[in-house]
Amino acid sequence: MTELLKTWLSQGPSSQQLISFNHHDIVIGSAFTGQVAALHQTLSEHKATRWLLACDSSDLFAAGLCAGLLAGKQLILPSNTQAGTLSELTHEFDGILSDTCLCEGKVFLPLKKELYLNDAAWPHGEKLGELILFTSGSSGQPKAITKTIDQLDAEVSVLEQTFAAHLPQCSVISTVSHQHIYGLLFKILWPLAASRPFLSDQVEYPETLTYYTNLFPNLCLISSPAQLSRLPEALENQPQYRSPSLVFSSGGPLSQQAAIDIAHCYGKPPIEVFGSTETGGIAYRRQSRDNQPWRAFNSHQIAQDEHDGALLLKSPYLDSADWLRCDDKISITDTGEFVLQGRLDRIVKIEEKRICLVQMEALLESHPLVSKAALLVLEQPRVQLGAAIVLSKQGRQLLADEGKLAVNNRLKAHLLTQFERVTLPRRWRYPETLTLNTQGKLLHQELKELFSHD
Question: Is the pLDDT of residue 445 over 80?
Answer without folding.
Answer: no
